[in-house]
């Protein structure tokens, strides 16, 4: 309390005493005993009110003992029970947790982890993933700026997250308790399968398998890839004590359209303790999306080669450069690119309209704009014979399809005839034109869709310079080629805008996150934030159906279907207000990553202990671990002085006391007839 507050309190005592004396003695005619009592009540109430007005700060010092935290972190994943180590892990956990000496020295805190990290209330060893990296991140967050040891009860087999060996703080010792049988058994394992999720019909897709052998004798295993009863590949692979790994690379035919399930298996004549890790199922969705494109031009120009290379960067696109009079039939083509059309293109325009083929029209200095006005009704051209260079302006509101601004404003100008271009009907403009610094508000790259026929317009030649500029900026043509592929993809599909768009995979591995997202658009094709979306998921084998609500996120609705068993599922997403539906299916492959191990990863746990200057222990060394923790002089309890400052105005009981004093004074005066 400050000197000023002390002086104010003394002054308050004088004021309270003076007012009480003046009220009950100086003015009083009869100085009775009751007057002394009333004066005392008045003195206390006035002094209490003045105390509240002064509001002194009361300081309280408290000494408290702070123990070093000791997190006991237990692996709660199913791999512990698969290695028959769940009972031992539980026994170790209870022995450390119940040790009174440890409780006295440390603030023992219990956690469990699998795919997540949380306080350990119970242990069931049913986690579907093991993320030891999450342990380090959470401990760093909980115990900031604190020196503490960690006891990690685990088999060390991590199935998700980054490498945990170097993720723990090197200044805080980690003492791994390795659970599981460390005896080496003969075992074959498919460590990893690399395969693309999608393949194209009548192509071949690559499969890469990484195989591992645990054992000491020389042995030959058989590696098979099959689909049902059909064997696509079978080969013998020799292993020995010095050759424990093998890589198999092969090509499989994509001869059936749709989701195709395959099985990879490695086996031998020897008996294995764990045969679950001998097999891995994988799936490939075979798509039929070949697109044949005719690039029609009556002239030679660098744009033609640039367009062909950009489009064919997608292996599913095939571009043929032809002259207008050389095309005999349009049946083989999905898209027509009409480069600087003139009257020679009349037959192609007439035939494409009849066939309903989507077109990409590119204009330039050789274009006959009067002819072009006659052949289409999306844009009206009033052009002169003068040439002009047009820069591009990217429209961020364009929503016909997703496209990235790859730096269009910095691209070289396109050359076209000078004049005015007027849009007619519903035209979506991706790029508008600019002459030097003046924006014309006329389209440079635009799209139209009428009666399920789609047309794209690029109004200017020399787009080959755009591709070159992209390479200069990014040391790669990839961004420009992807931009052109987006245009081709738009033209390759006749699907009109959908109000309900659902995103999902065709297959998932068991234990993976299964998230389905959906977007619902109103009649103006704007995201509807008031939509009500539900999903019905049906197991095609058991016919059991479960319903879920999709929760609104950032510009999408989401549902998490984690926990579904392996098998085939059909589902239907419905918007309840409009009754719009979307139906599809997905497959959950039978694969439990936690059953891939036969031993604890002692090597990794040893590296972790060494990196943090700790030590690895085994279940029969638990007493040694406890002794090490108790004898370590680095972990001592400290006394911490806690200072608490409380303003007197926060003391509600003082206000209550003042109220009681004033009420008592009033009642006494009333009873004695002094009012």
Automatic annotation (TrEMBL):
InterPro entries registered for this protein in UniProt: Class_I_gatase-like
Top-level taxon in the UniProt lineage: Bacteria
UniProt KW Transmembrane keyword: yes
Keywords: Membrane, Transmembrane, Transmembrane helix
Listed transmembrane segments: 6-24, 36-58, 651-668
Family annotation (PANTHER family): BLL2462 PROTEIN (PTHR37947:SF1)
Official protein name in the record: VWA domain-containing protein
Organism: Flavobacterium fryxellicola
């Amino acid at each position: 309390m400050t000197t000023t507050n002390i002086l104010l309190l003394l002054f308050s005592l004088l004021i309270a005493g003076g007012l009480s004396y003046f009220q009950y003695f100086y003015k009083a005619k009869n100085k009775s005993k009751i007057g002394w009592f009333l004066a005392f009540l008045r003195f206390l109430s006035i002094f209490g009110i003045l105390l509240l007005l002064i509001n002194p700060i009361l300081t309280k010092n408290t000494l408290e003992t702070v123990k070093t935290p000791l997190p006991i972190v237990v692996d709660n994943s199913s791999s512990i029970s698969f290695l028959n180590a769940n009972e031992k892990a539980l026994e170790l956990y209870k022995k450390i947790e119940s040790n009174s000496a440890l409780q006295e020295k440390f603030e023992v805190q219990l956690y469990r982890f699998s795919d997540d990290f949380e306080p350990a209330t119970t242990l069931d060893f049913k986690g579907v993933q093991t993320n030891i990296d999450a342990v380090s991140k959470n401990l760093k967050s909980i115990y900031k700026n604190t020196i503490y040891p960690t006891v990690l009860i685990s088999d060390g087999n991590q199935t998700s997250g980054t490498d945990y060996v170097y993720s723990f703080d090197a200044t805080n010792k980690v003492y791994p308790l390795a659970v599981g049988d460390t005896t080496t058994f003969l075992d074959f394992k498919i460590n990893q399968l690399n395969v693309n999720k999608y393949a194209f019909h009548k192509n071949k897709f690559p499969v890469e398998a990484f195989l591992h052998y645990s054992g000491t004798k020389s042995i030959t295993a058989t590696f098979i890839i099959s689909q049902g009863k059909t064997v696509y590949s079978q080969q013998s692979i020799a292993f020995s004590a010095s050759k424990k790994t093998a890589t198999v690379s092969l090509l499989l035919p994509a001869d059936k359209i749709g989701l195709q399930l395959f099985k990879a298996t490695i086996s031998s004549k020897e008996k294995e303790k764990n045969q679950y890790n001998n097999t891995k199922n994988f799936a490939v969705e075979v798509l039929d999306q070949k697109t044949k494109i005719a690039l029609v031009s009556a002239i030679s120009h660098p744009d033609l080669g640039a367009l062909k290379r950009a489009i064919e960067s997608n292996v599913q696109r095939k571009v043929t450069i032809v002259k207008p009079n050389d095309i005999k039939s349009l049946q083989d083509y999905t898209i027509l690119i009409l480069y600087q059309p003139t009257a020679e293109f009349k037959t192609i325009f007439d035939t494409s309209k009849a066939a309903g083929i989507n077109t990409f029209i590119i204009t330039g200095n050789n274009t006959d704009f009067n002819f072009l006005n006659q052949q289409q009704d999306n844009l009206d051209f009033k052009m002169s014979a003068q040439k002009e260079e047009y820069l591009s302006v990217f429209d961020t509101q364009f929503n016909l399809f997703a496209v990235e601004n790859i730096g269009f404003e910095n691209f070289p100008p396109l050359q076209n005839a000078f004049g005015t271009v007027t849009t007619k009907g519903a035209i979506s403009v991706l790029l508008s034109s600019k002459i030097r610094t003046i924006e014309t508000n006329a389209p440079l790259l635009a799209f139209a869709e009428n009666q399920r026929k789609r047309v794209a317009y690029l109004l200017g030649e020399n787009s080959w310079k755009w591709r070159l500029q992209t390479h200069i900026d990014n040391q790669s043509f990839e961004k420009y080629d992807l931009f052109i592929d987006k245009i081709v993809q738009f033209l390759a599909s006749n699907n009109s805008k959908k109000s309900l768009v659902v995103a999902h995979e065709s297959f998932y591995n068991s234990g993976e996150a299964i998230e389905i997202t959906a977007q619902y658009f109103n009649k103006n094709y704007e995201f509807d934030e008031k939509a009500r979306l539900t999903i019905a998921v049906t197991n095609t084998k058991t016919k059991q159906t479960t319903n879920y609500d999709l929760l609104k996120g950032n510009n999408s609705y989401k549902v998490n279907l984690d926990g579904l068993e392996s098998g085939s599922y059909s589902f239907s997403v419905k918007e309840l207000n409009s009754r719009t539906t979307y139906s599809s299916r997905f497959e959950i492959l039978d694969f439990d990553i936690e059953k891939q191990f036969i031993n604890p990863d002692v090597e990794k746990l040893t590296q972790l202990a060494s990196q943090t200057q700790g030590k690895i222990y085994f279940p029969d060394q638990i007493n040694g671990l406890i002794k090490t923790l108790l004898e370590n002089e680095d972990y001592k309890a400290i006394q911490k002085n806690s200072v608490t400052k409380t303003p007197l105005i926060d003391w509600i009981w003082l206000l209550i006391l003042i109220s009681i004093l004033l009420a008592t004074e009033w009642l006494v005066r009333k009873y004695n007839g002094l009012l």
